[in-house]
Amino acid sequence: MSSNSGEQHADPPVGLDLVAPEMYAPMLRRLALAAAGIGIGSALLAATVASWPIAATIGLVVGAPTVGYAFALRRRRMWMSGTMIHARRLFGERRIEVSAATGVEVLIFPARLSRIVLRVTAGELSQIVPLAMYTDAGSGRELHLLGLRRLADALATSQLAAAVAVSALLVHQLRAEARDARLAERPLYRAVQMARVKDAVSPVVLTDREVAALT
């Protein structure tokens, strides 16, 4: 136990957010300020024809949901420490121990902007980790190399055959990204193309055979 704790402590946390929160924080700040301004304006306008309590309520109804949404998005963050996935939400934090996973699946949401994610289940808890998203035009965004490496290493410690297979898939993706391979040569992109051909209702869960075929 102490050895495992030491390893987790020695490895610095690695972010698993597909888009770093720092990139969209300014946009969310502007969105919150704009929503607050609209809410205040609505309250002042309503105060000309209604009592202040009613006007204040109208202002809250107009502005508060957007402000709350922006605040919630700013708080959301995902990272990995050792073999533990941490997902911070608006209230609280979810932790999933990958080495103790009871289920590992690769899901694809095919659309004009297709998403491919990893779903890790440990007991009653489940967490979605975004791996990549691709557009019809052949562009997209993929999880950075360090995140892929840490996920692959953590999955390799699991006793599940599915987890080991997905670990191998991520290693192949890691190598493809490292050598800047074309999208057609990247396993995650090929997985999305595979799901699009099926023309199925999302999400599409890859079978063990399909995961193995991508490596």
UniProtKB/TrEMBL annotation:
Query: Any idea which UniProt keywords this protein has?
Result: Membrane, Transmembrane, Transmembrane helix
Looking at the keywords, is Membrane present?
yes
**Sequence intervals crossing the membrane:** 31-48, 54-73
- Protein's UniProt name: Integral membrane protein
What is the native source organism of this protein? Answer: Nocardia suismassiliense
Q: Source organism lineage?
A: Bacteria, Bacillati, Actinomycetota, Actinomycetes, Mycobacteriales
